[in-house]
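Dear colleague,

Thank you for sharing your sequence with our group. We've completed the structure prediction you requested, and as agreed, I am returning the results in plain text so they can be pasted directly into your records. Please verify that the sequence below matches your submission; if there's any discrepancy, let me know and we will rerun it promptly.
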Amino acid sequence: MEKYEAKHSKQRSTRQLGRSSGSEGLQQRSSGDSVSFKTMQESGSKELADSLDYRKTPEEIEKDKYRSELIRQAQAAAKQHRERQTIATRRVATKIPGISSDTGSISATDVEELLAKKRNINGEKYVKESLFTKESGSVKRNATPNSTSSAEKPAGSVQKNGQKRIQLTEAQLMEARAKVEIGRRIAARKKARSFKNIMAGLLVGLISLMLVMGMVFYLLIGVGLSPKLQTLWVTTAMTTNSHKWLATAIVSEERIKEIMEKETIDDSNFDTDLDDEEAYGNIDFGDTRTPGEREDQYMNRGYGKLENGLYMKVVSGKGWRGNVMLVENPLDVVLTQTPTQGTKGTTVRRMVELAGGIAGVNGGGFNDGPNYDSNGGKVAGLLIINGKLINPTWDDGGYLYNMIGFNSNGRLILRHCSKEWAKNNDIKYAVSFSPFLIVNGKGTVPEGSTGGWGIAPRTAIGQLPTGEVLFLCIDGRQPAWSIGCDLDVLQNLLLEEGCENAAMMDGGSSTVMIYNNEFVNKPSLGHERFINNAWVVLPRRFVNSYGE
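Please find the predicted structure tokens below.
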């Protein structure tokens, strides 16, 4: 009871203090003039009105002030939120065809109808958002361009066809549409970011893979963890005119020199044996087979018959493909040159056409230009055609050339000789190139060596003991078709065919085989390059010693 009396005594003291404030309101009240509490509030005397409310304690007045402040803040936040929604709604509306940026002149119904029209144009079934429905998934709207504001049309529900539908105000409709559109845009951005992340991941993975492969490549070839691959890489690069840097960039000069000395063929002690005067003086090479027997032998060895004593077969091995052309009569083989010798080369196809031939392959070497863009106009080394010396025409001091030639009897002769020796020993056609591959039935590539020329397209010429001439072309520099071969493959293939003498011709992009004005092989460039000379097969024009 004492606590209760003390509490109410304190409250009475506070009220007495309020009554003794001397304010005009108190005087009016004490004089019997009634002043309403509402009037004081409207006149702005909120604190005085609170003090005159005998039913409220000071603590209650403070709570009212705090509550009023919270209400004010909530109203301000709601207003700001509505302004943001209005801005978002206008941005969405401007993206819809037919709505201008002045969204104030467009009603919610117009926006809804334009959205529906846009979807129908895109061939989509217009389904109203489930966000606006309770049961049927549709919305009932009666808004028109002259509709009243959302404050005048509160949301509610209507009955139609036994279904309960929600009726939205214009502001609610626009707000919902804005939310849907914003959601779509957010989803689109997420999708775009996802695609970018995937592409970035792929790019990083590809770069990482390339770095790993580069490191493995350097270890295997540059460092030499795989001597076989290192040898193959060095010999392939160092025997080209313009790509030697592929070897020098990652392999030391000492190692390159060591590999080339070991792998390069030394054919200086190999020359065709000319002691058998009877064999080399006999045009039929001592062959006693009948035409039918020879043809049966060719067919049994996999050749297909063409015409004019020509036979052809396809050969292949690990990573390479090629073609072998067999010419039955060696006297049908001639050497031709570009018609603009010393100035400009031409193609094998053109030289075959000018000679009246039916087939042909590229011949000996020629000098490349400073940028390895030679047009084939200048021959390199020895060149004899129909017994006439074409090159060299100057005093060469008795230089010894790697001569690959035919004498007047059709015998293929391989010899290190001077131009004088060739002129004095019945050489009718001759070019220069190296190395010799087979001499007197013996291969020149040492056992365990690749030949030292690396992997590339190759051309070779050979002759059987019975006189038939073989032209061999191996395609290269085309991974999906054929990468080419080194000289050991070339030599072994010609030995298997039975060649007694054989030599390599110019190769690389010069390697071409023509028959009936068409490519037999697949040139590495996809087309022919200009070269200086070519071996051509002429149609059979006479009866030889075989009676053919």
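Summary note from our side: The mean pLDDT is 79.

Kind regards,
the structure core
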